[in-house]
Amino acid sequence: MAKAPSSPAAPVPLPPGLDGALEAFVHHLRAERAMSPHTVEAYARDVRRYLAVLAEEGIDDADSGTRAHVERFLARLATEGVGPRSSARMLSAVRAFHRHRAERREDAPDPTEEVRGPKLTRKLPESLTAEEVQALLAAPQGEEPEVVRDRAMLFLLYASGLRVSELCGLQSGSVDARQQLVRVRGKGGKDRLVPVSGRALKAVGEYVSMARAKLLGERASRDLFVTRRGRRMSRQNFWKRLQSWARAAGIGRTFSPHTLRHSFATHLLEGGADLRSVQAMLGHAQLVTTEIYTHVGRQQLHRAYDAAHPRARQRRT
């Protein structure tokens, strides 16, 4: 008889001083910075791991942590096999924690101020070519309710650059066909308005008028995109549907709904859109997050140059 999987071990209790500091930090993230529950949970988990190391060294006051403690924490992560990207994320959480402490108490030191994080290789986002996008959007042919829904979701995803969670979370009144806008609830509960192309609006209109009621039957729902069971389309279900349409379109590589978001941004910038506008449409808090798409464009320029310019061909020869 197979053994049931064991439940994850409960976190080791922290000394009262450290536990209270963590609680105050979590409250700050929720109430003052309005972070999403998922983000708050991730920050709290990473900071708790750091505070547990301080507790092991006999420290029960968060403001007694030093640069040496933070660096030993990072060294320990490396010995435990934690990768550079995860270590950098944890260091970011610890920085936010100590900066919060410094804001609360003027005499509280910030031991992370001069700590250097692990070196990261910047992974450029993958995007589809314009031809691949056209093939994908043309794949859902037919008037079956699921096909009409998928066609609307694909058109809207590429036309607006939404995150898949934002797409699946749209409410029935989120798309304003008259103003050609979609209202999106993004990270941290922040709303933004994103322009939508006429073809995408037409696909959504066909879904609302022809298919949505058939999928719901006698049921009612505030969600825009629903399944045969009357439930909201989930990210996992949409990912599976996307893979099916990609195969139907003859696209041989595997990609995610986020790839369409990357394609949206890359193609906008290639077409001459300014970076600030793309930042607003994507809902990025920092411009530096959007700037990565300019690197994608430069990469493609270099590939085009190498493939076509006679001097580049001579160099390869």
Tell me the major beta sheet. 3 strands, antiparallel
Q: Strand-and-helix sequence, N→C?
A: HHHHHHHEEEHHHHHH
Task: Let me know the CATH homologous superfamily of the domain at 130-257.
Answer: Intergrase catalytic core
Strand coverage percent: under 5%
Commentary on this structure:
With 317 residues, the protein is mostly helical. Among the domains are: 16-104, DNA polymerase, domain 1; 130-257, hpI Integrase, Chain A (Orthogonal Bundle), CATH 1.10.443.10. The chain is built from 13 helices and three strands; from the N terminus they run αααααααβββαααααα. It has helices at 16-32, 37-56, 67-79, 84-104, 130-138, 145-160, 164-168, 198-216, 235-248, 257-270, 275-282, 287-308, 310-316, and strands at residues 175-176, 181-185, 191-195. It has a three-stranded antiparallel β-sheet. The radius of gyration is 24 Å and the shape is elongated.
Summarize the structure.
The protein is mainly alpha-helical and 317 residues long.
Descriptive labels:
317 residues; mainly alpha; DNA polymerase, domain 1; hpI Integrase, Chain A; 13 helices; disordered N terminus; disordered C terminus
Please write out the topology.
Blueprint: H1 16-32, H2 37-56, H3 67-79, H4 84-104, H5 130-138, H6 145-160, H7 164-168, E1 175-176, E2 181-185, E3 191-195, H8 198-216, H9 235-248, H10 257-270, H11 275-282, H12 287-308, H13 310-316
Antiparallel strand pairs: 1-2, 2-3
Helix pairs in contact: 1-2, 2-4, 3-4, 5-6, 6-8, 6-10, 10-12, 11-12, 12-13
